[in-house]
Specification:
By secondary structure, the protein is an alpha+beta fold. The protein folds into two domains: 53 residues, no CATH class; 41 residues. It has one helix and three strands. The protein has a three-stranded antiparallel β-sheet, with no helix packed on it.
Length: 111
């Protein structure tokens, strides 16, 4: 593994209308004030980060972990959708399609 360096620009913003006082300041890698008027750009800083280059097997392991996590999220969301559809089916099956006993003909049906 070799040490690598990445240089990037950080954009420091403030959102004066934030509901939480601790959440007023954010740091991004892009200028949020250009796309979100709630944020005002305070300053920019260029930083250099040093990190160890991972070996190819470590990269593959991270990709596999990411795909497994994505698979779990998709399965959970699919299951939630299935439950909603099951609820809709049950609601439809609970509807009675019979005429109430006190109605003599179809013209008296209130709906």
């Amino acid at each position: 593994m070799t040490a690598l360096q990445i240089t990037t620009t950080l954009y420091i913003h403030v959102n004066p209308h934030s509901a939480l006082k601790d959440n007023r300041f954010i740091v991004c890698t892009s200028d949020m004030s250009q796309s979100a008027p709630a944020y005002a750009l305070l300053e920019t800083r260029e930083i250099t980060l040093a990190f160890d280059e991972p070996d190819p097997f470590e990269i593959i392991g991270k990709q596999v972990d990411s795909l497994r996590a994505q698979k779990e999220r998709v399965a959970a969301e699919s299951y939630r959708h299935q439950l909603l559809i099951d609820d809709q089916i049950q609601a439809l099956l609970c509807i009675e399609h019979t005429t109430p006993a006190n109605v003599s003909d179809d013209s008296d049906i209130p709906f």
